[in-house]
Design a protein that fits this description.
The complex is a heterodimer of chains A (181) and B (545).
Chain A (H helix, E strand, L loop, with lengths): L3 H12 L12 H13 L7 H12 L4 H11 L3 H10 L11 E6 L2 H5 L2 H12 L12 E6 L11 E3 L2 E3 L4 H13 L2
Parallel strand pairs in A: 1-2
Antiparallel strand pairs in A: 1-3, 3-4
Helix pairs in contact in A: 2-3, 2-4, 3-4, 4-5, 7-8
Chain B lengths: L2 H14 L3 E6 L2 H4 L3 H14 L6 E6 L11 E4 L4 E3 L6 H8 L8 E3 L4 H4 L17 H6 L4 H9 L2 H11 L11 H10 L6 E6 L8 H8 L1 H15 L3 E6 L4 H16 L15 E6 L9 H8 L23 E5 H13 L1 H5 L9 E8 L5 E6 L4 H8 L8 E6 L5 E4 L9 H6 L8 E6 L4 H15 L5 H18 L5 H17 L3 H5 L2 H9 L1 H5 L3 H7 L11
Parallel strand pairs in B: 1-2, 6-7, 6-9, 7-8, 10-14
Antiparallel strand pairs in B: 1-3, 3-4, 4-5, 10-11, 12-13, 12-14
Helix pairs in contact in B: 3-4, 7-11, 7-14, 8-9, 8-11, 10-12, 11-14, 18-19, 19-20, 20-22
Chain lengths: 181, 545
């Protein structure tokens, strides 16, 4: 809910020619999705992980504002929410690139050359695993195990899993992703 | 719902089913090889040939031979097609109708990969549609739950499980019956069942497959467990990395509720049972039971010291029974067929069957369910077909907590105790075969990197020990280590093993210790001194940190 004070600040900012910071109002819909999840779980503190999943789905990542919103909703200290968000690997506090590429580094994939795929992609993209290219196009990640060991090495491109990937396949696929908008 | 109604549902479903069923695997493995397209093409081919009255296409769970996917199986004649391309669909349908031959490759159903198997948990896998409760009921599902509720007392159920000799399939191998009895003995009141589906071991995907292929068997196992120990609420904790398993479980729970096989008054008895799904967020340590409980409660997955065991004081402080997915999937079969039947399979101390994920440098990749006591050699050489162009160097079992078994010990029978005796462990069932080109120091390094990243950071030996061990292994791989470093590696491994708080730390050094035990020369050849003398030292490999 925008309070009078907020509106005033915004008006002030606009009159001074400073664009107001992208704040809650603009993305209210996404906050609503978090609120729905919290409500469905009766605002119980033990639903924190569920709520963070919903939040990350809505926003793509968890920034301070989102964490504060969740903390407020579940009546938890922000430190607790931050602690949980940073403990689990799937939660990210930084925005991802437009495309994601997750290379499985489970044992089966590793033995069959998953490591080489990561090395090749790192070189191709000029970033380390866990980073996003400076143009915000591609995020490269390494996963522990996707459970698709029968088709090792496995790579997930934008949520689509592909099996028996070698370095060349992966690079070709990344180029394909980059060429798409 | 009572037994007659259940049987009526089964009969109605059997009448609905067509005489010929074309099973198309739509699990994660085959999906990655365009199985969904194959499935759609099969359906449109049936429509085109107007044979929907004789033949139906069924989306089924995993058939096991994941390396050769997508797989299509024809029931009843057992014909299996491997590596099916979407354009093969039409010819498969016509060939099944008896006209011409299919363009897809045929797989021998008597292939050793299949012939050595004894499907118990995987009995329905690849045969029933996991998204249809009616198919599960038609295959005899939920009858064991009825039997438990109406023909057995909770004590009898616990006794049956104890007598079956079933041991926890998650890795530890704790006798399931004993665990149940402990929870059952706790004073009446709120109790919980937790199904541990946080299958974090890299190289293992049995639980994913069970949840994707036969979710109802897990739900039924949980309900029977709930009745036996006096719990009315269950949680299934599934990794977020398994979206298909989560989707199918959600659907299964809804369907079971619709038939009042879940919820209040199951089968019109006084027994209530509800199941909630909790989705993990990518932390290996959450497979440890106390950490798992913390995670379900919405906290960081930090293990807590035991005792008190979860059986006494678990979720929200109440007695809690935690079993692995595969353990629970065994329950309905044991109740149906009896403890004696189950105990007739396997060895003296390890009864029944176990699913393994056979992967790595091996010809036949996939999931196998074999009786306990089968030798590693049979699994690797006969079922797995050996290593393509090369020979087996070692078999890694038990994931980051297990060890590498060298090829000389391939005659070791696969059961809890024998694997432990050779310095490895059963673990959850990952079995990664490595060929002669694999450097085992690199493998140890790989696992230590894993444990270093996955330690929760609560206890010092695990938090700092894994970092130091990782550093030492890196040094060895870079060819900069000396004899003293190797000695330190051994000492530190033992220290971490003995002083860590939970299973993660206690077992983290296992891959190092087992490779040191069986392949000391690999470490020694990388040390500074001998390397210069014998000239064999490979160039230090770049290590990505």
């Amino acid at each position: 809910m925008p309070t009078a004070a907020v509106t005033k600040t915004e008006a002030l900012a606009q009159s001074e020619g400073v664009a107001p910071k992208k704040k809650k109002d603009e993305s209210d819909r996404r906050f609503k999705r978090i609120d729905i999840t919290m409500k469905r779980n009766q605002f119980r503190a033990d639903a924190l992980i569920e709520v963070l999943h919903a939040a990350q789905e809505a926003f793509g990542y968890l920034d301070e504002e989102v964490l504060a919103h969740v903390a407020h909703g579940l009546k938890l200290p922000l430190s607790r929410v931050y602690g949980v968000a940073t403990f689990y690997h799937l939660f990210t506090l930084k925005p991802n690139g437009a495309h994601t590429c997750v290379v499985c580094m489970g044992t089966a994939c590793y033995v069959k050359g998953g490591g080489k795929v990561v090395d090749a992609l790192q070189e191709e993209l000029g970033i380390e695993a866990g980073e996003t290219t400076p143009d915000g196009q591609v995020s490269l990640m390494a996963a522990r195990c996707l459970g698709a060991c029968g088709i090792a090495p496995a790579v997930v491109y934008d949520g689509e899993i592909a099996g028996k990937q070698q370095a060349d396949d992966a690079i070709a696929k990344i180029h394909d992703l980059q060429s798409r908008e | 719902m009572d037994l007659t109604e259940l049987k009526a549902v089964a009969q109605k479903e059997k009448d609905r089913q067509r005489p010929i069923r074309v099973h198309c695997c739509t699990s994660t493995g085959c999906r990655a090889a365009s199985a969904m397209e194959v499935y759609r093409n099969l359906e449109s081919a049936v429509e085109e040939h107007n044979c929907g009255d004789r033949l139906e296409v069924v989306s089924v769970g995993c058939m096991g031979f994941c390396g050769q996917g997508p797989l299509v199986q024809i029931d009843p004649n057992d014909q299996i097609y491997e590596e099916v391309e979407p354009q093969d669909a039409d010819s498969i349908v016509t060939a099944t109708l008896g006209e011409g031959t299919a363009s897809a490759m045929r797989l021998d159903p008597q292939h050793p990969f299949f012939s050595y198997q004894t499907p118990v948990v995987r009995k329905h896998s690849g045969k029933v549609d996991p998204e249809s409760i009616e198919e599960y009921i038609a295959a005899g599902g939920y009858e064991p739950l009825y039997k438990a509720l109406y023909e057995m007392t909770p004590e009898q159920v616990v006794k049956e499980i104890t007598d079956s000799g079933l041991r926890g399939r998650g890795g530890g191998g704790y006798p399931t019956g004993l665990k149940w009895a402990t929870v059952a003995k706790m004073p009446e009141g709120q109790k919980y069942i937790i199904c541990n589906g946080d299958e974090g071991d890299p190289g293992a995907f049995m639980d994913r497959s069970v949840l994707e292929s036969d979710p109802h068997s897990v739900l039924e196992g949980m309900a029977i467990a709930g009745y036996a120990v006096g719990a009315n609420h269950g949680y299934i904790y599934v990794r977020a990395e398994y979206p298909l398993a989560i989707k199918r479980l959600q659907k299964a729970i809804q369907q079971a509720k619709k038939y009042s096989l879940m919820g209040s008054q199951v089968f019109d008895s006084p027994f209530d049972f509800k199941v909630d799904i909790r989705i993990g967020a990518g932390a290996f340590v959450c497979g440890e039971e106390t950490a798992l409980i913390q995670s379900i409660e919405g906290g960081r997955g930090n293990p807590v010291p035991r005792p008190p065991y979860p059986a006494q004081k678990g979720l929200y402080g109440h007695p809690t029974l935690i079993n692995n997915v595969e353990t629970l999937a065994n329950i309905a079969h044991i109740i149906r067929e009896g403890a004696e039947w189950y105990a007739s399979m396997g060895t003296e101390n390890s009864k029944g069957t176990k699913i393994f994920a056979l992967t790595g440098n091996i010809r036949n990749n996939g999931l196998i369910e074999v009786p306990m006591g089968i030798t590693l050699r049979t699994i690797v050489e006969d079922m797995g077909g050996g290593v393509p162009d090369g020979e087996v160097k070692a078999v890694q079992t038990g994931g980051p907590s297990g060890g590498c078994i060298p090829k000389d010990l391939l005659d070791t029978p696969v059961d809890y105790d024998s694997l432990k005796a050779v310095g490895s462990m059963m673990g959850s069932g990952g079995m990664v075969v490595m060929d002669q080109n694999t450097s085992l120091v690199e493998i140890a390094h790989f696992y230590m990197e894993f444990c270093r990243g996955e330690t929760c950071g609560k206890c010092v030996p695990c938090r700092t020990g894994t970092v130091q061990l990782y550093g030492l292994l890196t040094k060895i791989l870079k060819g900069q280590a000396t004899e003293a470093d190797l000695e330190q590696l051994k000492q530190l491994s033992h220290m971490v093993q003995e002083t860590s708080l939970c299973g993660l730390g206690m077992t983290a050094p296992n891959p190092v210790l087992s490779t040191l035990r069986y392949f000391p020369e690999e470490y020694e050849s990388l040390l500074v001194q001998p390397a210069h003398l014998n000239g064999q030292a490979a160039e230090p490999k770049p290590v990505s940190v």
